[in-house]
Amino acid sequence: MSKKGISDGAVHKTPADLRKTITSIPAVQEAWQDITPLARNEWICWVESAKKLETRNRRIKILSENLSTGKRRPCCWAGCVHR
């Protein structure tokens, strides 16, 4: 487990901006801890694959919305190539 009490992905470390969002919303933090390391890896890689800051910020918002409603993986994405 990493600092602030959240786990990283199987390959990727949770970046600071994503960690801040996850830890600021209890439901999202609980869901984050409940998903598998591979699922966390998919979310982290999806967020980090954004080329623009606006896209990255939008993806972090989508991640928090989706995790809080029970979604466990990013939608419509080929998946992390770093497994």
Low-confidence stretches: none
Number of helices: 4
**What fraction of the residues are assigned to beta strands by DSSP?**
under 5%
- Name the helix and strand elements from N-terminus to C-terminus, one letter apiece: HHHH
Report the sheet with the most strands, covering strand number, pairing sense and barrel closure. none
What is the radius of gyration?
11 Å
Helix content: 55-70%
Mean pLDDT: 90
Q: Give the end-to-end Cα distance, rounded to a whole number of Å.
A: 19 Å
Shape: globular
- Structural class comes to mainly alpha
How many beta-strand runs?
0
Structural write-up:
There is one protein chain. With about 80 residues, the chain is mostly helical. About 55% of the residues lie in helices and about 0% in strands. It has four helices and no strands. The chain has helices at about 15-25, 25-35, 35-50, 55-70. Helix 1 (about 15-25) crosses helix 2 and helix 2 (about 25-35) crosses helix 4.
